[in-house]
Amino acid sequence: MSKQLILRSLVVVAFLASTQSVYSADWAQFRGANSAGISGDTKVPTKFGPGDKELWSVPVASGHSSPCVIGNQLILTAVQREKHQLHIVSIDRQTGKQTWNYTIEVSELERGHPSFNPASSTAASDGEQIIAYFGSYGLVCLSMDGKLAWEKRMPLTKSYAGNAISPIIAGDKVILYRGNYVDHFIAAWDKRSGKELWKVKNSERFTPNMACTAVPIIHENQLIAHAVRAVQSFDLDSGQLIWELKCSTTATSTPVICKDEVVVATWNQTGEESLRPNFPTFDELLANNDKDGDQRIDRQEIPKLFYFHRSEGTEAPQNGYPFQFNHADPNKDGKIERAEWQVVLDREEDRQKGYIEHGLIAIPLNSRGQVTESDIRRLEKQGIPEVPSPIYQDGLLYMVKNGGLLTCVNVERGERVFRMRTGGSGTHYASPVIAGGRLYTVSGEGKITVVKLGSSRKVLATNDMQDFTYATPAVSDGVIYIRTHSRLYAFGQ
Question: Could you give the CA distance from residue 379 to residue 388 in angstroms, rounded to a whole number?
């Protein structure tokens, strides 16, 4: 080999080595590798905020998705409602400058809960392709320079809570769990061609209290999905069901692997007494809503929502339970009378008798067939989050819910270690992440609380982003990326 060729080879090796050292820890999907939310990086700052440890910040269009960090790129999904446009945007992670923007025009945008955003799904990448999903459009596969490779159009999703599920890439497969009123399935496509490899339709019917935010995870050849009313395991190659646990759950929390078990926070509003709608008596309904005084309630007089308070933290806002007028008007005369309303109350009483207690459950990974109550371990019954996924490290599992209530559980013993208030009040939609032995939790009002890991209860910092913050942070190479309602920040030492 010539000296010149050897020199060139050394230059290439040095370049590759430097590139790998700079971008050694991609955060290439929702919550990083296998959606576990774990970064071993010890250089991520503890105290930060606008103007403090800020490497850069840029304005971004509306969206609740997290950054996908791959190589020198940050990939974001976004929406411009007034233009009926969906966006997949690439941002240079060193400068924060936009490098390209792939735009999708749609005739109608997905709707949901007032806090929902049509760009809530986090993109995934393997360094060769970028996969993004929108409930208003479907799956989109782009090259790394933003060119369309393939797409899979899907009907407009319909769900009161909104469809915020994120796709994943598993080897040569793209995986998506899609839950809503229109089509309810989990499927795999070839990541290069877009060819459907398998699809499993879910027979469970969506109801108004259901959501779809849980990301499937991988254990060996198992694809584990937190679906509505079930936790399921599929063969990754064939889609064949390996095991299934039927339970009362709304599919909001991404599962986590804890040694030889998978642990799932199976939340359902019916599992918490304070979240169950308390319908008024007919006399109370008349007193507050009978505008014409005819001792009956017509369609215009019935409340569209019956409100009830969230549990644990009075700072959290009220929720609304949607009510269908037709359910209380069987004779279709446009009026609800006393006897008809009593049927509604009786039906609600019977429904509440069937409420199933939710909780934090552990399922053996070697399960087969139908998993029963006797096969699982119930680790915790209280403090179960509505949306944020739990996180696990060194035998301890952490979960945070509305009101900033943080619960730590020893998984092996199945015991609560501690419970504390983080200082972040109100709703919590972002999932916690771990970096350098510290836990980062994010409240909807933009308070990022950093807690020391372990059995202690020490809050190291509470950082104010000065804006609503619903997106889960991304961590890579000493930098934590935070997306607020209006901006994307990069914080580092």
Answer: 17
Phi-psi region of 251 (alpha: psi -120 to 50; beta: other; left: phi over 0): left
CA distance 254 to 219: 14
User: What are the angstrom distances between the C-alpha of 316 and each of 27, 267, 319, 389, 477?
Assistant: 31, 17, 9, 18, 34
Residue 20: the pLDDT is 32
Better-scored residue on pLDDT, 288 or 206: 288
Q: Tens of pLDDT along 122-133?
A: 999 999 999 999
Average per-residue pLDDT for the chain: 88
Contacts of residues 223-227 at CB distance under 8 Å and 24 or more positions apart, as own/partner, are 223/170, 223/175, 223/186, 224/255, 224/262, 225/177, 225/186, 226/251, 226/252, 226/253, 226/254, 226/255, 226/264, 226/266, 227/177, 227/179, 227/186, 227/202, 227/251
Buried b (16+ CB within 10 A) or exposed e, 452-465: ebeeeeebebbbeb
pLDDT in tens, 57-101: 999 999 999 999 999 999 999 999 999 999 999 999 999 999 999
The contacts of residue 85 (CB under 8 Å, 6+ apart) are 79, 103, 104, 105, 106
336 contact partners, CB below 8 Å, separation of at least 6 = 296, 297, 298, 302, 325, 328, 329
Boundaries of every domain in the chain: 274-353
pTM of the model: 0.83
- If you search the block for the tokens 């409100």, which residue do you land on? 307
